[in-house]
Amino acid sequence: MVDIGQGDFLRNGIEYKSDTKRVFLADTASNIHWLYVSNSDFKKLWPESPQKMKENNYTIKAKFRTRKLLLGDYAVATVIKIDSITEPPLITK
Fold this sequence. Notes:
Layout: H1 9-17, E1 20-28, E2 31-38, H2 39-45, H3 50-55, E3 59-65, E4 78-85
Antiparallel strand pairs: 1-2, 3-4
């Protein structure tokens, strides 16, 4: 499946070849910021499916380290801290 509606089609293709995954940080449904992390860090962000996390009433809070790039995007981020919090995860389509 190819997602061309998010405005980062070219970068998403390049990052996919580099074995990195796209994560979105959502303040609200209309305010979404994309961030790319390594495949190993991506697996740490979801210890189980979001539906299971919702059933168990918890989600995770992560802290990332990255750099701002020349054209306004961010470099590949590194997860530096992950905490479990007692709130259901935000699940959107």
